[in-house]
Amino acid sequence: MLCITIDWQCILFVVNKRKKKQAVELLEGLGLNLSDAVNMFLRQVILQKGIPFEVKNSMDAKYKDRPLSGNYRGIENVTYNRIGY
Q1: What's the pTM value of the predicted model, to 2 decimals?
Q2: Could you say which of 2, 32, 74, 85 is the most buried, measured as most Cβ atoms within 10 Å of its Cβ?
Q3: First vs last Cα of the chain: how many Å apart?
Q4: Distance (Å, rounded) from C-alpha 83 to C-alpha 85?
Q5: What letter does residue 53 receive in the DSSP assignment?
């Protein structure tokens, strides 16, 4: 993937294949693509100075330290890679 202008930067992220397909289909119905939706989300994060929707932990206190799913790796296992152009 090549980004031509200095004003734009490419972002690579991993998502669930089925959820991506569902989101793309819904966004197409709204006349948007995934890139448009991500850019809208980022603009709202900046405008609202945070996540533009409520994020809450509804788990019982005794389960708060357990993974949310079997695929959860935890933030300590996430690695960040820089892609050079």
Answers
A1: 0.58
A2: 32
A3: 9
A4: 7
A5: S
